[in-house]
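RETRY 2/3 - previous attempt timed out on the joint model. Re-submitting the same 577-residue input unchanged.
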Amino acid sequence: MTALTVIEAGPAMTLQDMGRPGWMAQGLSRGGAADLLALAEGAALLGQGTDCAALEMAGAGGMFETSAPLRIALTGAPMQAACDGQPLRWNASHSLPAGARVQIGGARDGVYGYLHVGGGFDGPVVMGARSAHLAGGVGRVVLRGDTLPLCPDPGGPLGLGLEVPPRGQGGEIRMLRGIQTDRFSDEMLERFQATSFRRSTRANRQGVALESDGPGFTAAGQLDVVSEVIVPGDIQMTGDGLPYVLLPECQTTGGYPRIGTVLPCDLPRVAQAGPGRILRFRLVTRDEADAAQTRHTAHLAALPRLAAPLLRRPEDIADLLSYQLIGGVVSATEEEGER
Amino acid sequence: MDIQTAYPHLRPLGLDGLLISFGAAMSDAANRAALAFRNDLARDPIAGVLETSPTLISVYIRFDPVALPLDRLADLIRTRLAARDWLQADLPDGRRLWQVPTVYGGPLAPQLDAAADAAGLSAKDAVEELSSQRLRVLTIGFAPGQPYLGTLAPHWDLPRQTGLTPQVPPGALVLAIRQMVLFTNGSPTGWQHVGQTGFRNFDPSGDPVIALQPGDEMQFIPGTESDLTRSPQPMALP
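RETRY 2/3 succeeded.
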């Protein structure tokens, strides 16, 4: 059995996949990777399905030892990474020999980094998925000393890279009106959209708290809201009048009023915004949201095509002669068109 | 999509969600309507609907907006809503009764006295009343398998506490706003901790992983700490 042994572990590492949809009626939110785009990018770099489980590393990675030759990919928040002292490029796939030690440091930008392996991580499938859902009581964090079994790798490309715009820096986040938006006055909604919010240090896979100067945001009849369904992306106004954006591991119902819901395609940038980063919100129409989602879906579908052979920078390659290039089939014109 | 103001009404919830509400506030009829309408969607699924979930007074639908645009889904839902008066719906079939040993008050459930006092009862009368009635699982939510139970008499309309209890353990029976909640996981809460059970709402490796279903009934029978290890067997309700 191929495995990855955890020699050192960052504070909050879990196995994550696309989550387990279908349990909301029983009180379990979907969960899954905080940055689903990073999951898709890793799958594209390894030429495999997005259903493969990856190791999600919040804030910092750790040190890992391979038991056999291995294909890996690194995506999400860029972290300092090296294999036996040789730097490993982020947003790229790599080949590792047996007994190699991979060191992954703190996030340089963003929060959640992902270590993918060819074939995906194995582990018990609970309620249809391998991902940990800590808030729901499914699975646990990955700890030093753990041996993580891997699924058999059917093989695939290596040495691919993706050009990924940074998404740990905050910026404008698009939102739709939600079920309680009309409990907020027009003036309040205007002020909300004109406010620059700082990402607070209170954040985890359940949600991200935001801070701002000036008065908070309150809804009419704030305290008599009937508990209703919550979905990831909902922007909840808690008692202090400050927004809390819910993420994949949120509870399934809640009684705080919600000013709107972040578009799924913008949610990775909320999850990845590092502490202190500035986020602003903009209400969009249904049509604009649908168009954005269509573009996002097309981008996800195009990722395998966009994963291109790495430019072989000599300093990245320990031994040029043994370098394998089994890249995906990418025509030169296509490549140029997409850069 | 036009938003109706009369009930049942339809509201989008995020890019891929639609919420159908049967009232503005919790009521027995709206709760029964939500359960019945959700069961109808489960029996006769709509292509493009990915998931449905009943809440206290609503049904949430998650759908694939590419395969099934919101407007078309809303039309299909309105047609189904018009087919009958959902507020007159019966409770679902296959309901069960769970009688759960419970320690009321004392160090295991330290807020019984305060809750009884707020309801204008002695602790003894409060236990008598709370343990003699069967409460219905109105919905399951917040955490896996976690039931919202009701509805208690009006004197139990206790506000949520403004200062949260930092932590109640799994199996805690807490009370506020004429409802009780039986906690799945340890959690902070603004509700009053009046009883403690050993009931497991959720066992990820069990079959089924979640014991309760909306519409089931629960009765919390007074017991001692040693009774908490007994796992109750459900009885079919007529």
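The helical segments of chain A are 36-46, 186-194, 267-272, 286-306, 332-338. Closing ticket.
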